Amino acid sequence: MNAETSTDLNSSSTFTPKDKRWSSWLLLAAIGLPMVMAYVVFSTGVGMPTGTVNKGDLLLPVTPLTDINITLENGQPLALLEGKKKWRWLIVGDNNCAKACQENLYLSRQVHIRLGDKAVRLERLYLNTDTAYSADFAQQLRQQHPRLVMAHVNADEWQQLLQQSNAADLALDGTHLYVVDQQGFAMMTYNASHEGSDLLDDIKRLLKYSYED
C-alpha cells in the first residue's frame, strides 16, 4: 500500500466533531420521534385509525382523572396511583340509579367475575354525584356488589374535566361506563348499545398488553 492510498483511507475514515453531532441527533430522532408521535395520537386522537379493534368508544382526548377530587365514603381522597396499578371501570350517577344504571352495574359485575384470577387487576367504582349515599342505595350496593368501591365526585367538576372531550355531553345518570387505565387516564366509554362480550373482549386485551405489578 503506497503512502497516497494510506492517506486517502485515513482521511475517508476520519469523522469531524460536526459529523459526530449529526450522528447523535439522527440517533435521538430515530428513537424519540416514534414515541412523540404515539403520544400525540393517543392523547389527541389525531391520526387514530377508525378501524380499531376495541369494542368500546374511544374517549378523545384521554383525560387524567387525577385532576379532579374523587373521595371515598370516609372522606379520604381516592389515590388512583398508589399501591398496585389497576385498571378501573367507573359508573357515574347519583342515588337515583334507575333501570339502565342498575343494568350497567349488573353487567360490569358479571364481566368482572368472568375475568377469573385476572379480576384482581381491575377495580369497579360507582361515583355518586350526590354528597352522600342514601341508606337504601348503599345497602343495595353492599349486598349485590360487595367488591364495588363507593366514592363521590362533584358533578360540576366532572363535567368541567370532560368539557373538551367527545364525552362532554354524556349524562351523569349511571348509563355510561368509563375505562380508566393504570395511570389514571379515562380512555374509553360504553353505553347500553354495548354487550357484556364487548367489555370482556376489551378488558382482556388491555390486561394482556399492559404490565402487572
User: Which strand order does the major sheet show?
Assistant: 1-7-6-3-4-5-2
User: Rough shape?
Assistant: globular
Question: How many helices in DSSP terms?
Answer: 6
Low-pLDDT segments, ≥5 res: 3-13, 41-45
Q: Structural class, from helix and strand content?
A: alpha/beta
Number of domains: 2
Number of strands: 7
CATH topology of the largest domain: Glutaredoxin
Order of helices and strands: HHEEEHEHEHEEH
CATH class of the largest domain: Alpha Beta
Largest sheet: 7 strands, mixed
Strand content: 15-25%
Span between termini:
62 Å
| CA-based gyration radius | 25 Å
Which architecture name of the largest domain does CATH use? 3-Layer(aba) Sandwich
Percent helix range: 25-40%
Mean pLDDT: 85
CATH level-4 homologous superfamily of the largest domain: Glutaredoxin
Structural notes for this entry:
There is one protein chain. The protein has 2 domains: about 5-45, no CATH class; about 55-210, Glutaredoxin, CATH 3.40.30. Helix content is about 40%, strand content about 20%. It is built from 6 helices and 7 strands; from the N terminus they run ααβββαβαβαββα. It has helices at about 5-10, 15-45, 100-115, 135-145, 155-160, 195-210, and strands at about 55-65, 70, 85-95, 120-130, 150-155, 175-180, 185-190. The protein is globular and about 80 Å long.
